[in-house]
Amino acid sequence: MRTSNSLCLALALALLYLFSTATWSAPFRVLVVMSYEQDNPWCAEIKQGIDQVLAAHAEMTYFYMDTKANLNGGPEKAREAKALFERLNPDGVITVDDNAQSMFVVPYLKNKVDTPIFFCGVNGDASDYGYPNHHISGTLERGHIRESIAFLKQLLPGFDNLCFIAKASPSGRALKKQVVGESSTYMVPTSRFDLITTTNQLRKIAGEFGEQCGAFYMDSLEGIENDRGEPMVNREILDFFRSIYSGPIIGGNRYHVEDGAVSAVVKTGQEQGEIAASMLLQALQGKPVSDLPVTRNYKGRRYINVNSLQSLGIKPRPIVLRGATLVTTTDK
């Protein structure tokens, strides 16, 4: 009797396991190729957005090309991503930021496979990569620069001109293109836009032009090299620049403000990831990619660093703070 009961129990457990496996197995396989490093905060935001949409529907595989820290190693990482794509044979692909497009999608996947591919975080024009086509679409990333300038003007009414610094990279050049195209609509004139690769260049800009700049907008700087030739992360760069420039610095992302920038109207990686993932899910469920046109981000969130306000002696009117997220500088 005990043997019979044990066999029944074992059979029931086996059936329960098989049922659970069948119920919870993901119907799709999705490969996500990130241009940057796994610990990059922008990548982390985008992953949150993608997972929020797709985690319940797909088996997710993430690959990081590490091109902020090692741009020259990007082509080899792209070859690794291609090999991973061939092993996984995914049902869909999401590619993030410009380097993943130029180094991975365009040479290895575009018009060579029928797999639906959706990009996000792309600063360049979609046409730069020959997008969209029969199997590729996605969402462009555009900084809320105009809004960030207007926000700083509310915090600091005397602010009267802005300088820009970005890394000499595809995203930095795309940002400069955006600024050139829309600067006539900004509340204050732009004095200069520098694309750099080292802290020595940053030091020179602060020394020669710092007094002429009412504020600096900094973005896309991760990976510039210090005096020892080592790539730097955003917090190190902001700490360094704040030590040689005494004016306000604004940025384009939440982590810029958390690392010491005064304020920003931020674009979010979560929005980028959610849009691309939602488009891919529709394609996986049968909607033609041609019916999913290229779009762009629109949501902006206002952030203020309280520590930076205090250090600069900025005392905004209470109404300016309404609706903004107040943060303090994060610990290293």
TrEMBL record:
InterPro entries: ABC_transpt-TYRBP-like. It comes from the Bacteria. Keywords: Signal. Residues 1-25 form the signal peptide. The keyword Signal applies. Pfam families: ABC_sub_bind. This is ABC transporter substrate-binding protein.
